[in-house]
């Protein structure tokens, strides 16, 4: 990446880490479209690698609030969905993947904004994990289905449980991508360059995560995601 591109993506990663640390979701929705515009070949590996330390930190910070039962069912669906994500990667070129990321981002944000309140059960958890497995393996974006099933839970439960599900799922996706030869040095180097911005955003989230208006931030993230997705769609044509 050029210095200008690195600065732009670093700002997106810093803000994305802050938002996810404060609300539990939003990192990939914010970071992936920006990375997709600048360097689509870095998706999804760069996003998945960056999310590992972020989600480990968020999970550990509020580990006492984790919903272990829900996380178990989500993880089962998540593992099954990984195969679908690999199929998407194999079927799409880099430019088409950018288009897919843009459409996925907009669709996920709209569903999360419009879905009415409900009490999730086993089938909802498995379905959320399945969809997350497909979209996160293919694009790095997997938060909206998980945010959907936990949107009416306590904020600490939402943040910590989603972080645990992400962490396990990202390890599965990265292991699968590595086994199929879809990880290279440029993606890992880019993630290393962006790590300082990630750390700053995560640390800043610790200052405000107990006081932040989570509902407002979640809506803001979805609106930002729609705008970013539209920008990525325009960039793909």
From TrEMBL:
Compartment list: Cell membrane
Keywords: Cell membrane, Membrane, Transmembrane, Transmembrane helix, Transport
Transmembrane annotation, as ranges: 6-30, 42-60, 72-92, 99-118, 124-150, 162-183, 189-208, 215-234
Membrane topology, from the record: Multi-pass membrane protein
InterPro entries per record: TM_pro_TauE-like, TSUP
Highest taxon of source: Bacteria
Primary localization class, coarse: membrane
One Pfam family, short name: TauE
GO cellular component: plasma membrane
Similarity annotation: Belongs to the 4-toluene sulfonate uptake permease (TSUP) (TC 2.A.102) family.
Protein name: Probable membrane transporter protein
């Amino acid at each position: 990446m050029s210095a200008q591109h690195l600065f732009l993506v670093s700002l997106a990663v810093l803000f994305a880490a802050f938002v996810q640390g404060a609300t539990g979701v939003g990192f990939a929705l914010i970071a992936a479209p920006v990375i997709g515009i600048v360097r689509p070949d870095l998706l999804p590996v760069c996003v998945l690698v960056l999310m590992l330390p972020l989600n480990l930190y968020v999970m550990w910070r509020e580990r006492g609030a984790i919903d272990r039962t829900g996380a178990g069912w989500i993880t089962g669906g998540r593992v099954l969905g990984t195969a679908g994500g690999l199929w998407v990667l194999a079927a799409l070129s880099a430019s088409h993947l950018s288009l897919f990321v843009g459409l996925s981002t907009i669709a996920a944000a709209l569903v999360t904004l419009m879905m009415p309140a409900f009490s999730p059960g086993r089938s909802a958890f498995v379905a959320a994990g399945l969809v997350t497995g497909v979209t996160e393996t293919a694009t790095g974006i997997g938060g909206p289905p998980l945010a959907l099933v936990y949107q009416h839970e306590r904020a600490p439960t939402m943040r910590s449980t989603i972080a645990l599900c992400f962490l396990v799922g990202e390890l599965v996706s990265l292991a699968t991508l590595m086994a199929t030869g879809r990880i290279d040095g440029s993606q890992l180097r880019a993630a290393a360059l962006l790590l300082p911005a990630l750390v700053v955003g995560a640390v800043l989230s610790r200052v405000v995560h107990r006081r932040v208006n989570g509902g407002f931030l979640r809506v803001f993230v979805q609106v930002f995601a729609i705008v970013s997705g539209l920008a990525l769609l325009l960039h793909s044509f």
